[in-house]
Amino acid sequence: MTTLVTGGTGKTGLRLALLLDKNRHSVLLASRSGSAPGLVPLDAVEFDWLDESTYANPFSRTSESSRSITRIYLVAPTSTTDCLPPMKAFIDYARKEHNVKRFVLLSSSALPEGGPAMGRVHAYLKEIGKEGVWFMDNFANDRAGLIRDEDRVVSATGTGKIPFVAADDIAQAAFDALTATTSVDSDLFVVGPELLSYDEAASRLTTLLDRPITHTKLSFDEHVDFAASTFLPNREYAKVLTALDIKISEGLEQKVFESEEHRGNRFVGKVRFNDWAAKQNMSVWKKA
Question: At a CB cut-off of 8 Å and minimum separation 6, what does 23 contact?
């Protein structure tokens, strides 16, 4: 039995794939390049959400019964905000043609079921009654170049607080959901162990990097312009992610972290912000 990891060369997908491999689970990376990054010794296959001719590729690669794909980690395409049409097409193909029954979707706590982007995919998985877990990642972006080159972080979160979560913790939560004997079949909120505003995160980076790091607070329109011109592929995607920032400024992420309602379906990561920064990211933030 094989787990297919879409977004296999991305931040959470690659970590998940390595974790599966380390624990002797068969895994196949899916990416547009069709290859694993660098010296990573994992099998990979060409896959593009927006090209249906690539949908059969993973199943052709694992055609032997002992390697058949039974579980899929879903990471939405970043080139479009209308995620449902291509993801629905592939989910339907996987379940109808290859009897895949378990799907794990990476989404966001700020995207409600049925809402924009991954929210509609979340609703569709529930509608078809497939085993699934919907991971609510809080989109804690490191935006390394801005910290390195301009000594600042930029957001539209205001003073809102976020339970920043490390990619390693998301990978662990996904691993648990994919390899469990029975599916959780519910929303699972993956959060970090502490609440921080971007102001507080910048203050901690100031101490760790031994130079002043500031937080530039932007309005919705300002952040859309900034995001679309720097680290996101288009304005529509920038609007979706900026809307998440606005919800954070209104306290949504803090409510998810503190609410008793979500306590039973909350995965609290182990990696604290300072440890994550010191052990994994210091080099990318250093001046050239």
Answer: 175, 179
CA distance 94 to 189: 26
| Secondary structure (H, E, C), 189-243 | EEECCCCEEHHHHHHHHHHHHCCCCEEEECCHHHHHHHHHHHCCCCHHHHHHHHH
> What is the spatial distance between Cα 28 and Cα 139, in angstroms, rounded to a whole number?
25
Q: pLDDT tens digits for 106-129?
A: 887 667 667 777 788 888 888 887
Say how far apart CA 282 and CA 122 lie, in whole Å: 35
CA pair distance 157, 248, nearest whole angstrom: 6
Domains of the chain (ranges; CATH) run: 2-139+164-191 (3.40.50.720)
Cβ atoms of residues 111 and 117 within 8 Å: yes
Residue-wise pLDDT tens digits, 174-228: 999 899 887 766 677 888 899 999 999 999 989 988 999 999 999 999 999 998 8
Reported pTM: 0.85
- Cβ pair 86, 80 in contact under 8 A: yes
How many Cβ atoms from other residues are within 10 Å of residue 46's Cβ?
A: 16
Beta bridge partners of 254: none
> For residues 12 and 75, what is the distance between their CA atoms, to the nearest angstrom?
9
Q: b/e per residue, 99-115, with b = 16+ CB within 10 A? A: ebebbbbbbbbbbebeb
Question: Can you name the residues that pair with 215 across neighbouring β-strands?
Answer: 153
Nearest to 85 by CA among 59, 53, 124: 124
